[in-house]
Structures are given as structure tokens and as C-alpha cells.
Amino acid sequence: MTPGMRKLDAEYRSALIDVGRMLTEDEAKNLAFEIPAITRGERSKITSGEKLVQALKPKKYITADNVDPLITLLEKRELNEVADILKEYRENNIEDEGTSVQPCEDDEHVEVKKESALEKPVAVDDLRRVAGKITRQWKDVGRLLNIEEEDLDTLEDNHRGKVQESSYQMLRHWKERNGKDATYCVLGEALEDAGRKDLQEEFYKRA
Prior knowledge:
single chain, mainly alpha, 13 helices, 61% helix
């Protein structure tokens, strides 16, 4: 991790701590119900702003270089003072020219690849390969990719009894919605967070 990335990561963590401290228990609970990445089981455990922030960290709902989804939700709830914390972080860090986070560049657990390879859009053939290997975790992966719970349920209903097809259509939906941002890096991190580190390593080798 470069010094610039370390500084950005520290600023990001500090901003999240401040957000967690400012949210009341009721505010945190209400927000949790509006964040698709947080599962029903996890929502029951959120009893403070700090716990909400802890639940968000591995979800990729927000990242060090994109806090906009949470800002939007906070403003929708008229929690403007809390939103201002993330706006200030964004202004001071994300919007500065040349400041960005490259989470895959220094991954110590996988074969290091050039950033350009991991940051390119995932090929359709690789989506098919992944879909066939995440039949038990496909909804978890979908949530980590910020796909709405309603969309996941619709895919399941449309392809009832065909889990692999549901999995593939979920990944296609993600790719079509995100375009050039549907990268090997993003999907690989979702696979790792869903407990499929083995598949992430295999997947990165295809990049």
C-alpha cells in the first residue's frame, strides 16, 4: 500500500468513526433497513451507529473512493449533519486530482497482477464460469455487488429451480448496470467477502 493510499484509508476510517458516533440507535436501525447490502439477520444486531458502520465496512456499499450512496441516504433521512462529515471527507480526499483507491493493486493474498488487468470489465465467459461455482452464495455475492434485494428475489422467482441461471443472470444484471466499472477487481472482492477466496484467486488469474 502506497503512502497516499494509507493516508486515504486512515481518513476514511476516521470519517466512518465520526458518522457512527453521531447516529442514534433509532437512526442506525432505520438506515439499516434501507441498505440492501445489510441482511435481515444483521439488521437485528445493529443497536448503534458504530455497529451500523461495522456492518457496512465489508459490504462495499461504500468504499474509500465512493461514499455517495450513504450521503444520499443520510440526506434522504434529513441527517444532514452526518452527511456533511462524508461530504467533507469526499471534498478533501476523493475529489482531489490524482487521489484514488486501488484495492487490488497490493493484494498480498493473490498473484499480483497489473492494475490494468484487474480493472478491466469482466468478460461474459468469465461470468458464466463464476455463476456455476457460486450456486450456494449467489445472493450473498449479489448483495455485496449492491444489487437490490427485490431484484434478487425476482431473479430467483423467474428461474425457480435453476440456481445456476439465477446466479448468471444476477451477474449479467450487475455487468449491464455498471458497464466499464463491472471489473475483475470489484467482483473478485465480492467473492472474497462472500467466503470464496478460493474462487477469487482462480478468477483473478483469468484477468
